[in-house]
Structure formats: C-alpha cells, structure tokens
Amino acid sequence: MSRPFIQSRPEIETEASETVLNMGPQHPSTHGVLRVVLKLDGEIVTDLDCDMGYLHRGAEKIFENRLYPMIPPYFDRLDYIAAVSNGLLYVETVEKAMNLEIPPRAQYLRVILTELNRLSSHLLWLATHALDIGAFTVFLWSFREREEILKIFEDFFGARLTCHAFRIGGMSYDAYPEFKSAVMALMDIFPKRLEEYETMLNENRIWLSRTVGVGIISGADAIDLGLTGPPLRASGVDFDVRKAHPYECYADLKFDIPLGDSGDTFDRYLVRMEEMRQSRRIIIQALEKLPDGPVMAKVAKVIKPPAGEIYHSVESPKGELGLFLVSDGTTKPVRLRMRPACFVNLQSLKKMAVGSLVADVVAIIGSLDIVLGEIDR
C-alpha cells in the first residue's frame, strides 16, 4: 500500500503532455541525498514526491543500545550544521527526566554557544541558498563570518563542526580565558556584515525575481503541515520554542520574534536575516549577565533516569527539535524518538512547489534549509 507523501518507489501517472523528472539524489541543490520526483507539464510542476532514506543510519535504534553518557556524540552528527543545538536537546531531555538543577553559569554559556551555532547555521544556509540562485559573492562573504564562529568553537570544544558541547548536568569545562573578548569582537563587526549581505541581495532584481512570490504557503497551511522555525514564522505565525516554552536562561533575556507577511521564499530569507540580529542581541545580553560559579551540577557517576516517559523540545536553527524519552530506570533508554524539524518541514515542499517552475523548486528547497542527516537519521 502506497504512502500519501513518502514512498520508496514513487509511481506518478502522467498524461501524454507530461514528463517525470528525477531531481537528485545526487544533486547539489537538494542539500543532501534527497530524491525529488517531479511531474512536469513543460516547465511547470504539476506534482512531486520526495524519496528519502539514502542516508539512513538507524540512529534511534543505536540510542537504545548505548549508556546515557555515550549518546551525545550521535546527536552531533544528525543535523551536523547545528550540532550544538542537537546536543543541547539531548542533555536537557535527560536532565528534565532526572529533575536536575543546572548551574546558572552553565545555562548562560549554553545559550551563548547555541546562539553562535544558530548564526553559523544561518550563515551556511545563506551561502548555499544564494549559491543555488546564482549569487556567488554572498557565498564567500558568509563563510568569512562563519569561519570566525568556527574558530571560537575550535578553541572551546576542540572541534569545528560536530562539537560535543555539553554534558548531562552542565558542561565538562568552563570557557577559555579569551572567550568573552573573542565573541564580543565578532558581535561588534556582525551588523556591518549583515548590511553587506542585504546590500547585495535586497534590491537585486535577479534575487527578487527568484524569491518574491515563489513558494507561497499560508499560515493556516503551515500550521496544518506542522511547519516550525523560520518557514512557519515567515507565514506570519508567531511561534518560537524559546518564547513559548522557555528553557535555560531565555526567560531572562530580551529578544523579538521576526515574522513575515507573504510566506514566500523572500520572506523566509528576511526572517532568517532578522533572526541573526536577534541572536546577536541574545549573545550580548548573555555575555553581560554571565555569572560566576560552577558549570557542572552534582550528578551520579551512573546515569539512571527514573522510569517514565518525557518529551522536550528546543528551537533549533531549522525549527522545533523534539525528543521523546522512555526510561525503565536502567542505564540505557528504552526509546529515544526524535521530532526532527527538517523532516517535518520537508512535507510542505509539495504545497509550495506545485504550480511553480522547475527552477523555483531549487529556490524553495533552499528556503526550507534542510539537512538530510537529520531527515534520514
């Protein structure tokens, strides 16, 4: 029996004037090993289906056979562009199940590092999205600032991409001596860099023709499809996990949730650009309020959350990233099931793309900012 959206071998009936085109799974604009089966009438998309699973590694089954402290590195490799956010989700879920109180300094450091990771993720999105549409200069500029963030991560974690950032109960080590000055130096130049990106794109007639009015989705449809993150907020829906269900020290920090009006590809671009400004605002506040004290709570050497089940979510750069944990009181979870933002957001592609040109599909996929490591798991 075929599934309504995802099937292993999509079968699309065509009329005489229609053709079927495979986009991917080896195609740079699908942002990973994603196969999109398009049904076309000339260059107009009349139907599409997504075929995924090429990167499936069985992560959620692996979790069931690992001790709790052994699991975090696997989360770093799901959405590998946002490893810090993924790691935060896992440790917070276990801490919530164990009712652990995290030291304030660890909370503020976690927020700073997570927001830096949001900037890094959005910069990579801007670079690749612009490159998909033909803007090569923005690609180079975005990587310039992202490199400075990765240098901070390398000094803090010893890794640039798959950063094993946090531990159950806090952090394994405190910030290095130059951490605050390095982050502030980047924050000082960041507004000017954002203006450079916008000067290049906001009034560029090619950019506007490829994004304005392309891939429109209404707020009601976005909610029905389970969209979260920038794609949801670009459709005018005011929902952000950091505001709706505050975690760490977000409740003590002031920031705004940018919203769009039209729900098109251009609005999704504008929302992410403003989110980077708000992330900078959060980082500066957290640095100024950063308290002294320990960064690790007193945690038993053997981690055994009490028997029961719990769901927890965070606002990753892509949207709501959730984790459902079932514990039987032993050293290994019975079940760890993710609610991946990229996977859920991808089901909106058909709603956005039908009626558009083939070239528009490239722009729409880019505006969703998907990572197949999180989709396939």
Topology:
Layout: E1 18-23, E2 35-41, E3 44-51, H1 59-63, H2 72-76, H3 83-98, H4 104-133, H5 136-157, H6 179-201, H7 205-211, H8 219-224, H9 230-233, H10 241-244, H11 265-289, E4 308-316, E5 319-327, E6 335-339, H12 341-346, H13 349-353, H14 358-368, H15 372-376
Antiparallel strand pairs: 1-2, 2-3, 4-5, 5-6
Helix pairs in contact: 3-4, 4-5, 4-11, 4-14, 5-6, 6-11, 11-14
CATH topology: Cytochrome-c3 Hydrogenase, chain B
C-alpha Rg (nearest Å): 21 Å
How many distinct domains?
1
Shape: globular
**Highest CATH level, the class:** Mainly Alpha
Percent strand equals: 5-15%
**Count of extended strands:** 6
Q: Helix and strand string, N-terminal first?
A: EEEHHHHHHHHHHHEEEHHHH
The largest pleated sheet is described as:
3 strands, antiparallel
Average predicted confidence as pLDDT: 89
Distance from first to last alpha carbon: 24 Å
What CATH architecture label applies? Orthogonal Bundle
Biggest sheet, spatial arrangement of strands: 1-2-3
Q: Report the structural category.
A: alpha+beta
Query: Percent of residues in helical segments?
Result: 40-55%
Q: Figure out the total of helices.
A: 15
Q: CATH homologous superfamily name? A: Cytochrome-c3 Hydrogenase, chain B
